[in-house]
Design brief:
Length: 412
């Protein structure tokens, strides 16, 4: 990678990270996304791009999304969503055609997500400090919403929504967790992980907490299966993290809000927190628009809220055709990543192992959170997911594996 390409790609990544984590004061997110995409495009010759198999399916998903504009019942809502999807697919393809950028991206992600972790903890201990920062960082409406959550005992940190804050904290947890498993001698990461887990608890976001744990367990088992000789080391790490985490949580009263939320919703016979109504209404939209859907973003416009389930959302807004296409793209990316990780984990490059493990964590978090959240058609959720896929796809392997990848995983 020459100097010009390195600078342009670094700027593209920096803007993407800023868009993900600090979007409250950035203005028009679609223009910012376009700048990031434009910088990425300037790093390569489009005609010479190699397209991986999963990217080909993502391109098909992009085409289906463009079709969504034509049939949409609310085009003003659909167009921005579709443009975001198309730009992120392009960024994915371009990043995959470069190498040696993963370290810079994961460093930016660690710093940005870490800021959100510590902002959440500071809001717990010194709420006035974060309130003063938020008055500058957030819009007046965003600040009011942040304070509304705070008054209810849920901590959004320097974000408008607790969901976004919890997702950012989960990203930090994922990065730190894979570093602990792969480099257990770095004890500072265990402390950072405990702090991040406490921060996640006090956001009061049940779904993201559960799905973060599920993703961690899957990655842990996957790594354990690929490194059976280190089974004792992994078990010690797991027990240590679990013990310290349990002690920390039970001794901080504010973390109990997430358990109180479970209890309140169960007593009110509303464990799904109103999601069942959104799902029912979304499925009604699907029943009237089964083949192509009603257009991306239409349910949000109709109900004033997204369905809180990307799979039902895909059915209602893109129909059976869009649902199948997107599911194929999501699953193919995960399967290719798992196959690639199996090769990389046998090699000596520890950094590549971290990139692979985090990519799988990020994909699993996105897929599982999709059952109760809205991560698909949102810059702040979809961007880290799609770039995480590019992280592992962009890793070069050596020898016969490299030849095999070139032959099997690319379409020129």
């Amino acid at each position: 990678m020459n100097k010009r390409t390195n600078i342009l790609l670094s700027l593209s990544m920096f803007i993407s990270v800023m868009l993900i984590f600090f979007n409250g004061k950035l203005g028009n997110l679609y223009i910012i996304q376009a700048v990031s995409c434009g910088l990425a495009i300037m790093t390569c010759n489009i005609s010479k791009l190699k397209i991986k198999k999963d990217s080909l399916i993502w391109i098909l998903a992009g085409i289906v999304s463009m079709l969504s504009i034509a049939i949409s019942k609310q085009k003003e809502t659909t167009i921005p969503y579709v443009l975001t999807i198309l730009m992120l697919i392009m960024i994915k393809i371009i990043y995959e055609n470069h190498d040696k950028w993963q370290k810079k991206f994961i460093t930016l992600m660690t710093i940005a997500s870490g800021i959100n972790v510590f902002a959440t903890i500071i809001q717990l201990i010194f709420p006035n400090i974060i309130a003063n920062i938020n008055k500058v960082l957030l819009t007046a409406e965003g600040f009011a919403q942040n304070q509304m959550f705070f008054s209810a005992g849920a901590y959004a940190g320097i974000n408008i929504q607790t969901a976004a804050n919890a997702y950012f904290i989960a990203i930090f947890i994922g990065i730190t967790f894979v570093r602990i498993v792969l480099k257990p001698k770095q004890k500072v990461n265990i402390i950072l992980l405990m702090i991040a887990i406490i921060a996640l608890f006090i956001t009061a976001k049940r779904g993201i907490l559960i799905f973060t744990l599920v993703s961690m367990i899957f990655v842990y088992i996957f790594l354990l299966n690929k490194n059976k000789k280190d089974i004792f080391k992994y078990l010690i790490i797991l027990m240590l993290i679990g013990t310290i985490g349990y002690i920390a949580v039970i001794n901080i009263p504010e973390t109990q809000i997430i358990f109180d939320k479970f209890t309140r919703l169960e007593e009110a016979n509303d464990v799904l927190n109103g999601r069942d109504y959104l799902w029912k209404q979304s499925l009604n939209v699907f029943s009237e628009n089964k083949v192509f859907g009603a257009g991306i973003g239409y349910v949000n416009f109709l109900l004033g809220d997204a369905p809180h389930n990307i799979y039902i959302q895909l059915l209602s807004e893109t129909g059976i055709i869009g649902f199948i296409t997107y599911i194929m793209a999501i699953i193919s990316s995960l399967l290719i990543s798992l196959k690639k990780a199996s090769v990389v984990l046998k090699q000596k490059d520890e950094s590549n192992k971290i990139y692979c493990s985090f990519s799988i964590f990020m994909q699993l978090l996105f897929i599982t959170y999709g059952f109760t959240g809205n991560p698909l058609f949102s810059n702040i959720f979809f961007t880290p997911y799609i770039i995480a896929i590019a992280m592992i796809n962009g890793i070069s392997t050596e020898g016969s594996e490299k030849k095999n990848e070139s032959r099997n995983n690319y379409i020129s």
